[in-house]
Structure formats: structure tokens, C-alpha cells
Automatic annotation (TrEMBL):
Family: Belongs to the urea transporter family.
Top-level lineage group: Bacteria
Database matches in Pfam families: UT
MF GO annotations: urea transmembrane transporter activity
Chief location: membrane
Protein name in the entry: Urea transporter
PANTHER family the record matches: UREA TRANSPORTER
GO annotations of cellular component type: plasma membrane
Subcellular location: Cell membrane
Membrane topology qualifier: Multi-pass membrane protein
InterPro entries (alphabetical): Ammonium/urea_transptr, Urea_transporter, Urea_transporter_bac
Length: 312
């Protein structure tokens, strides 16, 4: 397989913190099945980052491993969903995809001083920037209603729970897609990269569904998979990819992610509700940073996202 094609697919697989070309290919197929616009956006984001990453100071190793491009892939996906496409919004969206790379590089330089990877925080911030700037430009439109400044208690416990749909939608929502078939393919993609990744994701997602259901979460939000995707990313980060950075047992990390992520999701969703901004992967980022700092091997331990991930 050509090196450029490998990089193209790894840009997609690194969204879930796994470096594997076949994982990237399966995920891309899953995205096209779930929503062709999302599949196309992922390809555009990956291609743009592949072509321009050297301009932004990324090493060949970072580029080839997919670490330069995964935030761009997510930005492209998010804006394909949240933006109403005109030629103006298309230009801004493409610029945002490019902006994600220097933003990620800058964040990487800052965070490595305290031993943290940037994760998907560049994606979160760049997406917010584009959504917020829309209010100041008449030709930029999005599907997101910003600053409603009104709390609406929308918790509905009367709807039926669809556990199968909730389970697989929680996985496909990592890429902002709600589709059971896509979720199944993405789980297969996890197992292709790492048996631990697949096993941990399946168990964590199931336990999380039970946990948030017992807490009385909104059933429709559960069915749409909104409580699952941040937790899955956290499990992949702390129990699989970055587990060597902490002296804590991977199973302890596994349990903490299951318990903490729904709490962070609920708190952040409430905090952001008056502003109308989507919380995206912010709960995953905050929980992962917190646990990496709390359980690091040594006070001076440092890590940046250029390190090779370990999959076993």
C-alpha cells in the first residue's frame, strides 16, 4: 500500500487513538454508510492535512502515523454537519480544517511541558471558533442556535429505551454519525487494531449505558448515543493507548472513565446549554487530562502526541 494512502487512512484511525490503516479504512466505510456527507468530509479533511502538514512543522513520523491529521478530519466532519453549505461557508470550513493543524501544533508545544497530549482539543476549539463567528457574518449560516439563554428541562423518562441502537449509536457518534451499522463496523475496526481496544470498548459502553440509565438520563439522548462517545474515547486513551504513562492499573483507569465521563458530560452539557455550543469531545479531553496528571509515573514525566502508540 502506498505510503500516502497509509497516512490518509491513519489520519482517520487516529481519531480513535489507534494507528492502523485497516482500522481507518473500516471507519471510512462506516462513515459513508452512516452519512455520505460525513464520509466525504472525512476524506477531504484527511487529504488536506496530508498535503499541507509539512508546512506546519510536523515531522515525517508525525505525518505518517496520522497524528498531524486527525483533528482536521474531525473539524471537517463537524462543519459538514453544523454548517449550512454555501460557497462562503465552504471556504471558511476549508480554512478551519487547515487551521486545526497549526493550532494542534501550538497546543502540543504547550501541553508537552506538563506531560499531556493535545488529544481532540484543537478540534473542539476550532469548531467553536467557526460556529461562534457566524453571528458576525451575514453569509455564514449554521444549524446551531447560539446563545438561546434559556434553560429547557428536556429530560424525558417515558420514552422506550432501545439498548441495541443506544449501544451502537454511542460508538458511531464519535464521528457525529447516528447509525447502527456504522457503529458495528467501527467496533470491528477497534478489534482489527487491538483486541484490548475492542474488548474494553464493548464492556465500557454496555456498563455506561446501565449506569446512566439508572441515574435517570434522558432516554432519547441515550438512544441517540450521546452519552457513549466521550466515554469510549476515554477508555481507548487511558486503558489502551496511553496506559504506559501512568502507574495506575489499566482496569482502575477503565472503571474511573466509566464513572467520571457521564458526570463530566452532564455537568458540561448543563454549563453550555445557555450558550448553545455543542460540547463535542470536551468531556473526554478533560477526564483524560485529569487522570493522566493524577496517575503519571513520575512528576517530571513528559509526553507528546508524537510518541508511537502501543497496541496490544
Amino acid at each position: 500500500m502506498p505510503l500516502s494512502l497509509q497516512t490518509f487512512l491513519k489520519n482517520i484511525s487516529q481519531v480513535v487513538l489507534l494507528e492502523n490503516v485497516w482500522t481507518g479504512l473500516l471507519i471510512l466505510i462506516a462513515l459513508w454508510i452512516g452519512d455520505w456527507k460525513v464520509g466525504l468530509a472525512a476524506m477531504i479533511g484527511s487529504l488536506l492535512s496530508l498535503l499541507t502538514a509539512p508546512w506546519f512543522g510536523y515531522t515525517k513520523e508525525e505525518i505518517h502515523s496520522g497524528l498531524a491529521g486527525f483533528n482536521s478530519v474531525l473539524v471537517a466532519i463537524a462543519l459538514s454537519i453544523f454548517m449550512i453549505m454555501t460557497w462562503q461557508t465552504l471556504i471558511v470550513s476549508l480554512l478551519a480544517v487547515l487551521l486545526a493543524m497549526p493550532f494542534a501544533k501550538a497546543m502540543q508545544s504547550v501541553l508537552k511541558q506538563i506531560g499531556l497530549p493535545e488529544l481532540t482539543m484543537p478540534f473542539v476549539v476550532v469548531t467553536w471558533i467557526v460556529l461562534l463567528m457566524n453571528s458576525q457574518f451575514g453569509f455564514l449560516k449554521s444549524t446551531v442556535k447560539l446563545l438561546p439563554l434559556k434553560h429547557v428541562n428536556a429530560i424525558d423518562l417515558t420514552q422506550p429505551l432501545h439498548p441495541i441502537a443506544a449501544f451502537f449509536n454511542g460508538i458511531s457518534q464519535i464521528f457525529l454519525v447516528e447509525n447502527v451499522i456504522s457503529g458495528i463496523l467501527i467496533i470491528v475496526a477497534f478489534f482489527v487494531a487491538s483486541r484490548w481496544a475492542g474488548v474494553f470498548v464493548v464492556i465500557a459502553n454496555a456498563l455506561s449505558l446501565i449506569f446512566v440509565y439508572l441515574l435517570g438520563s434522558d432516554i432519547m439522548s441515550l438512544n441517540h448515543g450521546l452519552f457513549g462517545y466521550n466515554l469510549i474515547l476515554g477508555v481507548l486513551a487511558l486503558a489502551v493507548t496511553f496506559r504506559q504513562l501512568t502507574f495506575w492499573n489499566r482496569y482502575l483507569m477503565f472503571v474511573l472513565v466509566i464513572l467520571m465521563t457521564p458526570m463530566f458530560y452532564g455537568a458540561i452539557a448543563t454549563l453550555f446549554e445557555p450558550f448553545g455550543l455543542p460540547i463535542l469531545t470536551l468531556p473526554f479531553v478533560l477526564v483524560t487530562w485529569l487522570l493522566l496528571l493524577a496517575g503519571r509515573n513520575k512528576p517530571e514525566a513528559k509526553h507528546n502526541a508524537t510518541q508511537n502508540t502501543e497496541h496490544s
